[in-house]
Specification:
Length: 318
Amino acid sequence: MATVLVTGGAGFVGATLVRVLLQGGHSVRVIDDFTTGQRDYLAEVRDDIDLRKTDVRDLVPLRQACEGMDAVVHLAAQSGVPPSIEDPQRDFEVNVRGTFNVLEAARLEGAGRVVFASSGAVLAGAEPPLREDLVPDPLAPYGASKGYGESLLRAFESAFGIVGVALRFSNVYGPFCRHKGSVIAAFLQRALAGEPVIVDGDGHQTRDLIYVTDIARAIVRCLDLDQGGVLHLSTGVETSVEELVALIAEIAEVPRAVEHRPARVGDPVRNYADPARAHERLGWHAEVALRDGVRQTKEWLETDGSRGRVGRSRTRAR
């Protein structure tokens, strides 16, 4: 079993990943600056992990966090297109300088593997389905910063022998989303509050929606890879925002109510990715169907979402 450092481990993906790693017998250290991460997301596992408040922009404590680690999973980031447009300087500091610091700390402290959370935003301007062989085409600073991280990962693998895997996440959803403004989290929270969901644009835009436990399972499989590279983690299924609004209204058992706003700068019109390479290299595929995942996310928000605990859903994935 590996000793694994998870940066941003008190965040949305991190809270689920930490549990999956512990279930697999791995030793886990978590760092987070708690700008968006929530301590209560890790309350149930606090005694089983080494949790530290650390900012990836600060190399010295980051090196200390990397001491004795076999692998680093780098999730910490300024996440999303709109914040990167509102504050591109912070996007650079966290996502570019922070990613360099993580790789440099891993190199200096002898961590042999780094798994980097990238994004389909690297290819936001490309014609879908998105694939690993397409030329990067970001439409916002966020996508550009993730593209930098991918290039740096490849350089550190070539120059220093670190096995670097960049995982381009599609639109991730699931529990521990209380602080998130991503599409399913935002739609569900407004629907459950009896408010209309806010759709930026006409609703015809499409997304590839993947449940967070599927992402976590893929990350864990990357810990066994002996060679790095870029992989898309996706379902390969294109779902329109209109379809998603209808599904959420059905599952939340509320009338369908929508408030349209202008389309956001930097958002692609169509977005879905081909997961074939991840299937081939990891023996992995997404297992949780959209309807099941949305229902489980709703149940988490209704039961334990206010406290950050794991939802008590028993809905089986398929």
